[in-house]
Design a protein that fits this description.
Layout: E1 3-5, E2 11-13, E3 23-24, H1 35-40, E4 42-45, H2 50-62, E5 69-72, H3 76-84, E6 96-99, E7 102-105, H4 106-113, H5 132-150
Parallel strand pairs: 4-5
Antiparallel strand pairs: 1-2, 3-7, 4-6, 6-7
Amino acid sequence: MEGRGDSLGTERPLSPARTSPVTATPEGPPPPRFAEEVRDGIVLFDGECGLCNRWVDFVLRHEREPRLHFSPLQSPAGAELLRWAGLPTEDFDTVVLIDGEGAHLRSTAALRVARHLRAPRSWLRLGMLVPRPLRDGVYGVIARRRLRWFGRRESCRVPTPDIRDRFLDSG
């Protein structure tokens, strides 16, 4: 399989579906219009997934400080950030956290988001102690069934006025 080299000199597969690293290392600075948001953290999520939207609602309710920003993967901002991170923009449907340390995928992204939550929810980050293959295995089981279990939205969410500035494409 073709791959791209990362900063450690190892091969990184082009398809993140099963084998990509826990963190993609984007080359160069973030797109200028998102520089501040990347510093705070941007959560990219499947805007059509019921579970993903509920998870975003949970994060918004339990964040220690309103710092994280959000964007559906299907939005122009989501696609721009995926391209910058070297991730595919087509048929890509995993949660991504982009912050000052890179682009984190799957269970690592979700658990890193937990660092932004108030206790006791922030304790979920202790899940990082579980080996990544095991965490991502559980994540994959849920991800494959999420649309069946939680449904699909016909369109991406429209943020309410009080949180609109937290969503990148809601301008």
